[in-house]
Every structure is written in structure tokens, then in C-alpha cells.
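Course exercise 7: structure representation. Students receive a sequence record and must write out the corresponding structure in C-alpha cell form. The form below is the worked example handed out in class, using VOC family protein (121 residues). Read each field label carefully; the graders check that inputs and outputs are placed in the correct fields and that the protein name is recorded exactly as given.

STUDENT ID: A-19
EXERCISE PROTEIN: VOC family protein
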Amino acid sequence: MDILGTSLRVCVGDLNAAIGVYERLTGAEAIRFQRGGVAVAAVGCFFLMSGPEAELSVLRKITATLAVKDVDEALADLTAVGADIIAGPLPTPIGRNLVARHPDGSIFEYVDRKGGEGAEA
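STUDENT ANSWER:
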């Protein structure tokens, strides 16, 4: 599988205030979207997330988001090494994703830009 990059997840109380900070630090403009009850802003290599604690507590368990060339390829590789697929592959606002628990217990989200709602293939 080709890992193209990594995004760090940051849960924040005030998304609007956090966006200004991270835009200044990264020099990137925020891309906003909603995932369930959680408001998300992608800013550079950061995913800023704000919303109900019940939903954030689940998202905090995911160590990082890994951009991959193809989620289906990641699925095959993860299955081959004995990872537990927790969710997906599913379409998201920016592509497809899956969430997997590695054999060591670490949880990662894998995302590609193929077939998402409004994503470019």
C-alpha cells in the first residue's frame, strides 16, 4: 500500500477559534465538512474536530488518519497482516475511508480520494 501522508487529529472546544490558529501555523486554508454530529476542518496536516463528547470520545481512539492511494489496496494489506477492520470502506466527503485496529491494538483511519461524495477521482 502507498501511504501518501498523515493527518493528526485534534479535538477542540471552539472550532472557529482553532481554525485561525492552525491556518496561521500551517499557511493553509481550512476545508470544512460535517461528519455526523462533528464539525471538521482540515487545515494542512491537521483535522480539527468539534462536537458532542460522545462522538469525540470515539474519534479520540483513532491515532491518526493516513492518506493512501487506494483504500481497497489498504484493506487487502491490512487483512493480510491480521488487522481488524472496524468500519468501511465507506464514502466520505473527501473520498473513501476505513478504520482498522492493527494487531498491536493501534487504531488508524485510512482515506483515499476515490469515489467520495464530491471528491475528484
